[in-house]
Specification:
The structure holds 2 protein chains of 2 kinds.
Chain A (H helix, E strand, L loop, with lengths): L1 E9 L4 H11 L3 E9 L5 E9 L3 H13 L3 E6 L5 E12 L4 H11 L1 E8 L2 E8 L1 H11 L4 E6 L3 E4 L1
Antiparallel strand pairs in A: 1-3, 1-4, 2-3, 5-7, 5-8, 5-9, 6-7
Chain B lengths: L2 H11 L4 E4 L6 H7 L5 E4 L3 H15 L3 E5 L3 H15 L4 E7 L15 H5 L5 E4 L6 H13 L5 E7 H5 L23 H12 L4 E5 L1 H5 L3 H11 L3 E3 L14 E4 L6 H9 L2 E5 L5 H4 L10 E6 L13 E4 L2 H11 L7 H13 L13 H12 L4 E4 L3 H9 L8 E2 L10 H11 L5 E6 L10 H7 L4 E6 L4 H10 L14 H8 L2 E5 L5 H10 L4 E6 L25
Parallel strand pairs in B: 1-2, 1-3, 3-4, 4-6, 5-6, 7-8, 7-10, 8-9, 10-11, 11-12, 13-14, 13-15, 15-16, 16-18, 17-18
The chains are: A alpha+beta, B alpha/beta.
Chain lengths: ~160, ~550
């Protein structure tokens, strides 16, 4: 099962390597990882989506992360109210006939066409896990040529 | 002040008395300062020896051990020693030189990404890029190494930082917002644990290296005697409970005593203190202590419920918690019949071995050593059969008299560790129990001993084999002794060529005499005991079996 956790860390040289190293050394799987500075430039915020078969592994991930000297706090969102979002960018097949259909789609989902070049359109979309999944299913009908995603971001509410 | 000087002044402020190390190109400024600085420096003959010596010094004294090496190969030679200290939670600070900051990442001569290499085997590490950070980093390194669950910390210092100048300001206090170890146990949890102990019928205390680290020897004894519970220790916990105490069961696990293992399997309550339920202790996990509730006291939350399901976790310092816990126990459990059962096991399954004419049995050497020292010595070991016999056949009465590589199982550890131990405790007799294989892994440190008049006594259990691997090949690989027969130099002549004393013992009747001679010698001594070649360590739990499924070779 996938779990979302956030890790506040000291914004120091090598911290990402420490976190990534811990996951690989202990055999935990990272599904996605997003890192950036917070409003306090000495602190970075990581949102990590992990694969954990059971509670025990999740508990160990939590404890092992906390053990790292540069980790300030670890929050497991599994049992916490939270908001999560992901941004995706795609290149899809496009003809002028698709314009209306895409505009209708982006009334239902948060997204837009950024650019059209020849038979390709670049589109962006933002949403939670379920929305992104549904949207990708629909967009696959257009033919997805390229897809990049930020990975999940999460914040408690 | 020069960075190199700031380093030494900071070490002094941190209470460092001795540094083990080896010079090289990227630590020249540090060595130039060491030339007339008032701190003892021990030049080993290999950086690995320096790391193990710092580790041994730490285990013998409880202080932070310090080692120093140059960049690249100097630093990578420390790696085994750092990993060893990490696995056994030993406080150590390793200092390495690094190529100049402008060359980092350039594949410069003798460059290695040492913070990268040591990240998974240190509690924390630092690359100091600005001399202004140096004093603060050193104070943080010592604090991190010695607090909470201790461990090694590495500081990588580029040579230009050693040469740079700044004002030396020693920080009075360390404040790390992201690192605050928990020392006092949760009062509610302690209360619950006390209640559980009161109603136990078959309690066992399972004590680990945390007892030694937190200096909880007295507190453990008081608890055990108050509730009349038998005590077994892990390998790392040896010396944490008096080895001749009537409540002592010896070590548990793969080569533990049968009665310790039976006690664990039959227990209705396990009080685990500063131990981590590793695979050499638990054997087959789903069959471990099936009827027992578990109280687990540990300073490292990640040790709790990692392997074994725990009923009452208590995070904090063993010493504090044991004291609190003992005070909270109002009603004492009735363990009279439990202790009787255990006495029965002790009689039925004692540790034993068979004599074979004048042949020297390794167990016999240890028995004689015990008779001569009565526990008043520091016993270091290498790794393998000789190490396991040393766990079983010598009695450790007090903490820090047993020094051995547990988690990592590093051959070549014992000899340099003995050097460190002797420097830390010069008034103590220090032995290294070695095999003919292990001793050859860091034998170059003989020169360190002789040059510095560090008198350690190395007892080589010479059986012509890499004995523990041979034992597994005998038992599980149809006696196909693949590359386990091993040749050795003439250890007597070798010792002599270094300026040490070499003795050879081939008969049982000569053992005690040789030990006495070694103890009386005002020199480093190598004693080459020619022991029974295919003696095995019994009892033994095959890997992955329940710990009461022991093989007894004598049956």
């Amino acid at each position: 099962m996938r779990h979302t956790i956030s890790v506040l860390v000291e914004n120091k040289f090598g911290v990402l390597a420490r976190i990534a190293g811990l996951f690989s050394a202990r055999g935990y799987n990272i599904a996605s990882l997003a890192v950036s500075e917070t409003q306090d430039p000495t602190i970075s915020y990581m949102t990590i989506v992990v694969e954990a078969q059971d509670e025990k592994i999740l508990e160990q991930i939590n404890k092992q992360l906390n053990k790292l000297i540069d980790v300030i706090t670890v929050t497991d969102f599994t049992k916490k109210d939270h908001v999560d979002r992901e941004l995706i960018l795609l290149k899809i097949g496009y003809t002028i006939k698709d314009k209306q259909r895409l505009e209708d789609l982006f009334k239902k989902y948060v997204g837009k066409i950024i650019q059209v070049k020849g038979d390709t359109a670049i589109v962006e979309a933002v949403g939670d896990q379920a929305q992104i999944k549904q949207l990708l299913e629909v967009l696959s009908e257009f033919g997805i040529k390229e897809l990049v995603r930020t990975g999940r971001l999460a914040i408690t509410n | 002040m020069l960075g190199a000087r700031i380093l030494l002044e900071s070490l002094k402020c941190s209470g460092v008395e001795v540094i083990f190390g080896y010079p090289g190109g990227q630590v020249l400024p540090i060595f130039d300062q060491l030339y007339d600085f008032d701190i003892k420096f021990i030049l080993t003959r290999h950086e690995q020896g320096a790391a193990h010596a710092a580790d041994g010094y730490s285990r013998a004294t409880g202080k932070v051990g310090v080692c120093l090496a140059t960049s690249g190969p100097g630093a990578t030679n420390l790696v085994t020693g750092i990993a060893n200290a990490y696995m056994d939670s030993i406080p150590m600070v390793a200092i390495t030189g690094q190529v100049g900051t402008h060359l980092i990442g350039n594949d410069a001569f003798q460059e290695a990404d040492v913070t990268g290499i040591t990240r998974p085997i240190t509690k924390h590490n630092f690359l100091v890029k600005d001399v202004k950070d140096l004093a603060r980093v050193i104070s943080e390194a010592f604090y991190i190494a010695s607090s909470g669950r201790p461990g090694p910390v590495l500081i990588d210092i580029p040579v230009d930082v050693q040469r740079a100048e700044t004002e030396f300001i020693w920080p009075e206090k360390v404040n790390l917002r992201s690192y605050k170890p928990t020392y006092s146990g949760h009062p509610g949890q302690i209360k619950k644990a006390a209640k559980l102990i009161s109603v136990a019928k078959k309690p066992v205390i399972y004590a680990g290296g945390g007892i030694i680290t937190s200096d909880a020897y007295v507190e453990l004894k008081v608890l055990a005697e108050k509730i009349q519970a038998p005590v077994t220790t892990t390998f790392m916990g040896l010396g944490g409970f008096c080895g001749t105490h009537k409540l002592f069961l010896g070590m548990l696990g793969m080569h533990g005593t049968a009665y310790a293992n039976h006690a664990i399997m039959e227990a209705d309550l396990i009080i685990a203190v500063g131990a981590r339920f590793d695979d050499r202790v638990t054997g087959r996990l789903d069959n471990f202590a099936p009827g027992a509730k578990v109280i687990h006291i540990d300073i490292d939350p990640s040790s709790i419920s990692k392997n074994v399901r725990v009923d009452i976790p208590i995070v904090g310092d063993a010493k504090n918690i044991l004291k609190e816990l003992t005070g909270q126990i109002k009603r004492l459990p009735d363990t009279i019949s439990w202790l009787k059962t255990i006495e029965g096991w002790k009689k039925k399954y004692p540790l034993t071995y068979k004599h074979n004419g004048s042949m020297i049995k390794p167990q016999y050497i240890l028995e004689q050593l015990w008779k001569l020292t009565k526990g008043d010595a520091i016993i270091c070991t290498e790794v393998g059969q000789s190490q396991m016999w040393a766990c079983q056949w010598y009695k450790y009465l007090t903490p820090r008299t047993w020094i051995s590589s547990g988690g990592l199982g590093t051959m070549g550890f014992g000899f340099p560790a003995a050097i460190g131990a002797k420097l830390g405790c010069p008034e103590k007799e220090v032995f290294n129990i070695a095999g003919d294989g292990s001793i050859q892994m860091n034998i170059q440190e003989l020169a360190t001993c002789v040059a510095n008049k560090i008198n350690v006594k190395v007892l080589i259990f010479n059986n012509g084999f890499l004995g523990m691997v041979r034992q597994w090949q005998e038992l599980f690989y149809k006696k196909r002794y693949s590359y386990t027969p091993i040749t050795s130099p003439d250890f007597v002549k070798l010792a002599q060529s270094y300026g040490a004393l070499g003795l050879r013992v081939t008969k049982k009747s000569e053992v005690a005499k040789a030990l006495k001679k070694a103890m009386q010698a005002n020199n480093t001594v190598f004693v080459d005991f020619r022991i029974e070649p295919e003696e095995n360590v019994w009892p033994m739990v095959p890997a992955g079996q329940a710990i009461n499924k022991m093989i007894e070779g004598l049956a």
